[in-house]
Amino acid sequence: xxxxxxxxxxxxxxxxxxxxxxxxxxxxxxxxxxxxxxxxxxxxxxxxxxxxxxxxxxxxxxxxxxxxxxxxxxxxxxxxxxxxxxxxxxxxxxxxxxxxxxxxxxxxxxxxxxxxxxxxxxxxxxxxxxxxxxxxxxxxxxxxxxxxxxxxxxxxxxxxxxxxxxxxxxxxxxxxxxxxxxxxxxxxxxxxxxxxxxxxxxxxxxxxxxxxxxxxxxxxxxxxxxxxxxxxxxxxxxxxxxxxxxx
DNA sequence: TATAATGTTTGAAC
DNA sequence: AGTTCAAACATTAT
Length: 247
Known about the structure:
Elements: H1 3-13, E1 20-25, E2 40-46, E3 49-54, E4 57-62, E5 68-71, E6 82-87, E7 94-99, E8 102-106, H2 126-134, H3 140-145, H4 155-164, H5 178-201, E9 225-229, E10 234-238
The protein binds a DNA duplex (14 and 14 nucleotides) through helix 4.
């Protein structure tokens, strides 16, 4: 799950702020009992990480490829990774289930919620991102997937942003001219926002994908190349004619 | 039906 | 001792 998906979950869960956990279960190996009796103080996210912050302890949730959550509606015949039962204003309890997520308890005092690196954040620092691109010798495809630089970008956003900015995925990061790099950063933010808006409306993402899982270039109609690019070896779709290679 | 994939962490192997 | 890489996780769309 990429940044926009996590952002949406954060928004969907924030109404639980102020409620208390009174029951925990699930097959997660974390020390779940630490969450018992705790008040949910805030729900936050940085890139692909979701944080449920309680007094004295925080739960970090990563959804990976197949992670999901449900409220009051467990998957039949599946043991959740974690169930948190909240009491909400003394009304009916709210059951929050997590499936196939990677969970960790962290000390809230050591929590780094710096979102200047999060492409969906108002605090995203484009100049800092530009400096990172200009000083990195890796292939741009890998740099875009680096969560320390572009938190929230996943393989889909990477593919689309590179196409929108007309940059070949195997370009050497530092060799990309400033104006092109700036545009690439803008397109990464732009597409992440489009992604989020579509998710919010429940629309299929497929409709807005220009290259990911597609066969032909929407600009010149030539056949798209597919390659497992960079160290990350992630599937990358691109147009050799329209996307320029900087070496 | 088999395959591949919106991703990270871990630990073995080199 | 630093790096590289496969495995594990276990679901869902094609």
